[in-house]
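Pasting as-is:
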Amino acid sequence: MHFNISNLLWQVFPNVYKDNLPRLFAFWTPDGYQSGCYNLECPGFIQINPNVCLGASIKPISTYNGKQYEIALLIWKDPNSGDWWLRVGTEVIGFWPAELFTDLQDRANRIDYGGEVYTESLGKHTSTQMGSGHFPDEGFGKAAFARNLEMVDQDNYLNEVSNLNLYAEKANCYGINNGHSDAWGNYIFFGGPGYNPNCL
């Protein structure tokens, strides 16, 4: 059995939610994507907090060259129970029970930060935007970002993530770059427009 909290952040997915609103989501799979589900659609994630819900729309949202908003997310393993907990902002909203997985009984072996776009093959690249729809070199207020990238160690302490490997499958469609500052710690800017004259 392979468990993977493969995606956790926000998404726009009209086929699932029947609208174009950005929503907080998690997708998990027990067997390497052979099956799995979004949010609370199948047994797995146990919601304990009624104030924040997986699948809920996110408001307010950032605007290009305007006010920027953030969501602080934390996933950590309880060293006593082995359960994997989720906190959104200051709210602990629930957990994935330890018995769901074998691969994560000890620790996660990989953490990915950034964005992902999925579409069925249409013969050309999708015009689905990632983040704001602008490339990362535009920077703060214009491109999507994640900051204070940290991981919880085996002693339950937060440590800065080091040795980030940057990867963009189609760099003419979407990009990523990184940096470090005292205020933001390790950070990334990411995103892009998708289909454009250089991304076919």
